[in-house]
Design goal:
The complex is a heterodimer. By secondary structure, chain A is α+β, with helices and mostly antiparallel strands. Chain A has 3 helices and 3 strands, in the order αββαβα. By secondary structure, chain B is mainly alpha-helical. Helices cover about 65% and strands about 0% of the residues of chain B. In chain B, helix 1 crosses helix 7, helix 4 runs antiparallel to helix 8 and helix 5 runs antiparallel to helix 6. Chain B is globular. The chains are: A alpha+beta, B mainly alpha. Chains A and B meet through helix 2 of A and helix 2, helix 5 and helix 6 of B.
Chain lengths: ~100, ~260
């Protein structure tokens, strides 16, 4: 058994974002373990783009992500249910604007 | 029992079989890690690389079969030859060893293949040049991936450095064969089929030396050992490897997925 604790520790977790083609945005597609950022990019390439899923990869240490608390879900998101006026559905758009 | 096939011995067929067999046997050894790598992500990475090498082997063996003109396809060439008719350097048939050994061999091989494929893009054989154009991108990544591991482990913990050092000591004498010169090579160089392997020695030595230095490893002195796998003279490890590689095609001749 190794006594070197640094090699026994599990590698940090990274969140992986892949852009499927130029012009699109990077989309979160999963997570993986890697020792450092460069390894994380390589691993992401091998795990998440082996079937031609992407042309660009971002990795972010999972520990750097600050997330909303699931317990706050009600207070955070439920109040939006009846605010239909926040949707821009009451405007008449010119026909030439297809992708609003 | 399916009878073994014979292959021609023209310089161009030998040149192609050497390359195709190198990729084939390296893929076989690397694929032994499937399900056994230290972590899932690396398991997938090594399997991907093994499949890249297998793809390269398929292309080159197919072309070798065409030029040989005996009607042998990639499968027959891969599975139905006798040991003496495989022309890969002994380096790639050595047992996979530990993870350090595998990555160091992979880095050395990937760099060598990178230099070779780069040159083969200008081959007078259009088919081979096309295979090279695709393969060169693959091995560029292989070298980066394995090279990073060499640096991480060579310049890592006490144990990883010691394992890398042991791997280098074992592998070093086998690198010689990657740069041997002989008639098949000279003919390939003359006809423009591809470079003589000896031409790769200098650029390989420079870049591999830089990698070792980066990994805090010492370049060993020149070895006089000369393995002769590319002339069909293999180590004791080749037989068991081929037994496993050939088993299905020998047991179920012509079997397909």
């Amino acid at each position: 058994m190794s006594t070197n604790t640094s090699t026994n520790a599990e590698w940090p977790l990274w969140e992986v974002f892949v852009r499927s083609k130029a012009g699109m945005d990077h989309k979160h597609c999963g997570s993986l373990h890697a020792a450092d950022a460069k390894m994380a990019v390589q691993m992401a390439r091998d795990v998440y783009t082996r079937r031609q899923e992407g042309v660009s990869i971002w990795v972010v240490p999972s520990s750097q992500i600050t997330a909303s608390d699931p317990a706050d879900k009600g207070a955070y998101f439920d109040p939006m249910q009846d605010k239909v006026y926040r949707h821009p559905t009451f405007y008449e758009l010119p026909e030439s604007l297809n992708h609003m | 029992m399916t009878a073994s096939i014979e292959v021609g011995t023209t310089p161009q067929v030998r040149y192609l079989l050497r390359l195709g067999d190198t990729c084939l046997i390296a893929a076989q050894r690397l694929s032994e890690w499937c399900g056994h790598a230290p972590i899932l992500e690396e398991d997938i990475a090594m399997s991907n690389i093994a499949l890249d090498l297998l793809g390269q082997a398929r292309g080159v063996l197919t072309r070798a079969g065409e030029l040989d003109g005996r009607g042998h396809d990639e499968d027959q060439l891969a599975f139905l030859r006798e040991e003496r008719h495989y022309l890969n350097p002994v380096l790639v048939e050595l047992p996979r060893g530990d993870f350090a050994f595998t990555q160091l061999r992979q880095a050395a091989l990937a760099l060598w293949l990178l230099l070779l494929w780069e040159r083969l893009q200008a081959s007078t054989d259009a088919e081979l040049a096309a295979i090279a154009a695709k393969a060169v991108k693959e091995v560029r990544y292989h070298f980066e991936h394995a090279g990073d591991w060499v640096v991480r482990l060579g310049d890592g913990s006490e144990e990883s450095a010691q394992r890398m050092k042991a791997a280098l000591t074992t592998l070093w004498p086998y690198f010689n064969e990657l740069f041997d010169a002989d008639g098949a090579d000279a003919a390939a160089s003359e006809t423009g089929l591809g470079p003589a392997w000896s031409e790769l020695r200098e650029p390989w030595t420079v870049r591999f030396g830089a990698l070792l230095e980066n990994a805090a490893m010492v370049v060993p002195g020149a070895s006089r050992y000369q393995s002769r796998g590319r002339n069909g003279v293999h180590s004791e490890h080749m037989g068991p490897l081929l037994a496993q590689l050939q088993y299905l095609q020998r047991a179920y001749p012509g079997g397909r997925w």
